[in-house]
Structures are given as C-alpha cells and as structure tokens.
Amino acid sequence: MTHAHLITAHHRTQTDPTLWTPDKEPAKFDTGVHLHTPVPMPLQQTAGALAVASTSTSSLLTLIGHTPLVPLLRLTADLPSTVSLYVKLEGLNPGGSVKDRAALSIVREALRTGQLGAGKTLLDATSGNTGIAYAMLGAAMGFPVRLFMPANATQERVQIMRAYGAELTLTDPAAGIDGARQQVHDLVAAEPDLYFHADQYNNPANPLAHYTTTGPEIWQQTGQQITHFVAGLGTSGTMMGTGRYLHEQNPAITLVGVQPDTAKHGISGLKHLATADIPGIYTPGIVDRVMEVTTEEAQVMASTIARQEGIFVGISAGAAVAAALRLARTLAHGVIIALLPDGGFKYVSAPFWAN
Ligand SMILES: Cc1ncc(COP(=O)(O)O)c(C=O)c1O
Fold this sequence. Notes:
Oligomer: single chain
CATH class of the domain at 3-38 and 63-94 and 213-354: Alpha Beta
Bound molecules: pyridoxal-5'-phosphate
Low-confidence stretches: 1-55
Structural class: alpha/beta
C-alpha cells in the first residue's frame, strides 16, 4: 500500500470529517504511546546532598515524551486527499510542554558529569515552559531551582513555577528573554560555586533530547512517511535535534522553522532570529526553510484549533499550525507533522483569550 493510500484510507474517504472514528486510522500509523523510543532511565544515585533515583521519581520521568500524533481533520478538509497534516501534542507531557524533554536531558547530563548535585542550585533564564520543567524535576528529584523570567509572563506560569517550589526572579519585560539571560550570566559569574547554569540556549543536551526521543517517535509514528516537519524556533533545540534525526533517516524531508514576523511579538517561546541573540545550539544549515507568522495569525489559529478540532493549545502552537496549513496548500502530496509545544491552559489569563 502506498503512502497516499494510507492517508486516503484514514480520513479522505470521509465526506464529513467530523465522522472520523479511531478505527478508521491507517494501520501503519501508530498515534498512540506505545513506542520503541528511548525511555528515560531512573536517575543514578549521586554524591552529596542529592539523594535521587528510586521508583517514585522514575515513574514521573518515564511519563516524559511518547506524545501522540493527532490528525487535523476539519482544518484540512479542503486539501487534496494526498496531503495530510498531523500535530504532535507536546502539551501532554507531565510538565505541560515539549520542554520537559530538554530539561530532563540537561539535568541528566549535569548529574552524570557532576555539574549538578552536592547542594548546587540549577539556574536558568526561561520564557516559561523550561522553567516549569526544571521546577517539576527539581521537586521530584530533590535539587533547588532558581529561575529568571521576563515579568510580562502570564500569572499562571509564575504560579506554576512557585507551586513546584522554585525561586523565581521577574526581570524587565522590555529587555525580553535576552535580558533575563544576561542577569543569569551576571549571577553565575559572581557566584560560580553556588549554581549549575543549565543554559538551555547553549547546552547540547537540549537538542540531544529531541535527537534521541522526538525525532525517533515521529519517524516511527508516521511509518517513515513524513515529508515535512514544522516547528517553531525558540532555543531551536526542538528543530535542531528532531530535524537532524529526521534528515539522517531521509534527507528529502523538508524541515520548516517557524518564527515571528517582527522583533516585538506576542508568540511566547519563539524568537525573531534576525533581531535576537542567536542561540549557540542553532545551526542555520539544518533548517530548509523558515516561515514567518504574525502574532495575530498565531492567536487566531490557536482559537480556531480549539473551536474546530477540540485541541486547546498555546500561541506558538497556533503559529506552527498556521505555517503548516499555508505550506500544505502549496503541496500536491505530503505528510506534514507540526509540533505543538504546549497546551493553552497556562495562557488563559492573557488578554487575547479574555477577549
Ligand atoms: C511555548 C513554546 N513554544 C515554542 C518553544 C520553542 O522550542 P525550542 O526552544 O525547542 O526551539 C518554546 C521553548 O521554550 C516554548 O516554550
């Protein structure tokens, strides 16, 4: 059976996409969670004050990753039967976002090398999701977490980090995430012995998480039929790791990076690379194409996905789907996978949703 047949059997034979039922799923698409992907290993016992490992922590860690792929049916109803769009729901990670993967990888590597442990505090700048992931892992594994985040983050993000027990400093919103990063650099320079600087923008363990988990999951879940991968660029860890893995499997796969159209934007988690500090882990040659999305387009799409697909996602997920749909309309054939970094729940107080 060809790739096109599989997709057709899935949902294009349905005249009304709302009639889709799980038993219509194509046989070779494993959209569930039973994947042969690397499973996070229980932590090793480490020296000093960091007494971790054991079954109680490993059970939380094994919930990270293995997220499902879901087809967008109503939003793609006007596309040819040979073009499909699936979304990977990273909001289903236990900390609520794709950043659980990167944070776990960073923490694991730091424990392995001894950079974290013996009373050291994990320190980093965050726009929200990575901080939540570090805070969750710190609580579960027993290390202190200190975070710097621009003060214009939604109240939900602030409260979630504090609920997990992290120490949070809010920074000048006008200076953005790069301002928060500068404050972290200054603090580490002043007191290097107190902190492990997780540095998600420059830490190779960030893209490595996606190279070893997100990429293999997508490759297996699509039965190796993926033609395009679409993801937003923040630290760029998701795209660098997933993209590198997918290109190694099939160099013909097109990697599409998504970014805001201007420096001043409201798409939390994404960077306007032309004007921002370029992350150290970003390798420009990996991305085949960059698509720009306006804040309004991303917001409207997030709302449309909620109302037409029943999937409540964050604004950067709206940006990814807006770009993926634009791309889909230019293709005659394709299996597009768009990665949706988080759910919408921690943004409900944002003015956009209030209106
Ligand atoms: C909501 C959201 N979307 C997108 C991204 C971008 O992911 P990455 O940093 O892997 O490029 C992030 C990163 O923090 C995020 O929090």
